[in-house]
Each structure stands twice: as C-alpha cells, then as structure tokens.
TrEMBL record:
InterPro entries named among the record's database cross-references: AAA+_ATPase (IPR003593), ABC_transporter-like_ATP-bd (IPR003439), ABC_transporter-like_CS (IPR017871), BCAA_Transport_ATP-bd_LivF (IPR052156), P-loop_NTPase (IPR027417)
Transmembrane segments: none
UniProt protein name: Amino acid/amide ABC transporter ATP-binding protein 2, HAAT family
A Gene Ontology BP annotation from the UniProt entry: L-amino acid transport
Pfam families (alphabetical): ABC_tran (PF00005)
Gene Ontology molecular function terms on file: ATP binding; ATP hydrolysis activity; branched-chain amino acid transmembrane transporter activity
Ranges where the ABC transporter domain occurs: 2-235
Keywords from the named record: Amino-acid transport, ATP-binding, Nucleotide-binding, Transport
Organism domain of life: Bacteria
SUPFAM superfamilies: P-loop containing nucleoside triphosphate hydrolases (SSF52540)
C-alpha cells in the first residue's frame, strides 16, 4: 500500500533521514521503533508532506507518487497523520475539533454520520462535545486526535507516539482502540518509544537509528528476542 524508497530529509544542515526504505502492506499494522532523535517523527512528516524530501520517493498503491502531493492531497488519498503531542486546537470545542478532521470532505450528511460513529467509539468525547479541547485530560486529547483523524476516513493512519504522557491504564485503552481500528481494516504505521507495547499489536516492525533502518523483522520475532535488540538499540 505504502512504500518509502531511499527517503532522505534534512533540516538545514541536520540530516534527519539518510535513506529510509520501508513498506506498509494493505491491512498491516507496522511499528516504527527507535531511540530519541532516530528520525521516527520525521518519517511520518515526510509521508504527510510536512517536510520536503531531499532524495527518494514515497509511493502509494504501487503507482501514486505521494511525495508530489500537497499535504491536503495526502489526506484526500486517505493517509492521515495523528501528530506527536496530539496538536488539537485548544480554543475549539471537542466537536469543532472533530469537524476540522473532515476538512477535505464536502458531504455534510456523511460527515455527521461519521461524527456519530466517532462518538460511539469514544463516549467520553460525546459527553464533552461542547468542552474546549485544551481543557481535556491527556488521554482524552489523544482520543480526540484519533477521532479527528477518523473524520477524514483514513485507509492508512500514521500514529506518532500515542502512548506519550499517558498512565498505563490509558495506554491500554488507547491501544485497544488502535487494535480495533486495525481489525476493522485500517492500515497503521505506528511510531512508538514504548517498544514493548507496540510489539503487542504490530505484525512487523522497523527499528530506526540515526536516520537509517537498522533492523526489520516480524514483531513475533522481536518479542522473543527483546533482550538482545533492546540492549543493542537502548530501547525499553
Ligand atoms: P523522538 O522520539 O525524540 O521524537 P524521533 O525519532 O521522532 O525522536 P525526529 O523528531 O524525527 O526523531 O528527529 C530526527 C532528527 O532531526 C533529530 O536529530 C532532530 O534533532 C532533528 N530535527 C527534528 N526536527 C527538526 C527541526 N524542526 N529542525 C532541526 N532539526 C530537527
């Protein structure tokens, strides 16, 4: 479904990605692991066109050069980013935040249906639909960020550190939702520092270090060799 071929990204003189190649198949849940600064978030930003490629290609469905689309074009193709730190709009209500997720869509009746579906999945957001986004708890903001992404009808979700700053109970709740979305057929590329929890839900994983893929394997294999590769990469 998605293929990155030799992707290079720089921030000024900082070389963040130095030739990333990876694939996410249709219906797959793939984890992107690695220590701080390895280039995980930059990989997601490159896919959603928030940073330009210096070299390489990003191809959707074997044919579409995603790296030539503007960011809203990527969303229109069903590739939707849930950024690190959630980045919801603090001054908008929960419901207004959800509507912003449908910015590429025109059919209001369909958008309303999807809003109801998001509220069914996240009853807490429904209870708080008139509350300002900035007043939600960390876990609720993460759910709002995922709910907002669902309003764009994603085929592929790019999730950046959904466990960040959440209590173990909330991490479990968020990962249950991620697992549900995957079972419903949404493909997912999941960036996580918490390798242990990511490998519980992922089918395959890539480990990044210094802007390069240093390891790629089925999650099952990485789970059984956790002590070996966690010592090697310094990950939990
Ligand atoms: P973390 O888990 O800490 O978020 P990461 O693996 O997501 O790390 P990135 O955020 O992709 O890593 O950063 C990759 C490299 O690019 C790092 O060396 C970082 O300092 C650098 N970098 C990221 N954003 C910028 C920026 N806006 N300007 C300059 N350098 C940046």
């Amino acid at each position: 479904m998605l293929e990155l071929k030799d992707v290079h990204v720089s921030y000024g003189s900082v070389r963040a990605l130095e030739g990333i190649s990876l694939q996410v198949g249709s219906g797959e849940l793939v984890a992107l692991l690695g220590p701080n600064g390895a280039g995980k978030s930059t990989t997601l930003r490159a896919i959603s066109r928030l940073v330009p490629l210096r070299r390489g290609a990003i191809v959707l469905d074997g044919a579409v050069p995603l790296h030539r689309d503007p960011p809203e074009g990527v969303v229109r193709r069903g590739v939707v980013h849930v950024p690190e730190g959630r980045q919801i709009f603090p001054e908008l209500t929960v419901e207004e935040n959800l509507w912003t997720g449908a910015f590429t869509r025109r059919h209001r009746a369909e958008i309303r249906q999807d809003l109801e579906a998001v509220y069914q999945r996240f009853p807490r957001l429904k209870e708080r639909r008139h509350q300002l986004g900035g007043t939600l708890s960390g876990g609720e903001q993460q759910m709002l960020a995922i709910g907002r992404a669902l309003m764009a009808r994603p085929r592929l979700l790019l999730l950046d550190e959904p466990s960040m700053g959440l209590s173990p109970r909330l991490v479990e709740e968020v990962f249950t939702i991620i697992g549900d979305l995957h079972r419903e057929g949404v493909s997912i590329l999941l960036v996580e520092q918490n390798a242990h929890i990511a490998l519980q839900v992922a089918g395959r994983a890539y480990v990044l270090e210094n802007g390069r893929v240093v390891l790629s394997a089925p999650a099952r294999e990485l789970r059984s060799r956790e002590e070996v590769w966690s010592a090697y990469t310094g990950l939990r």
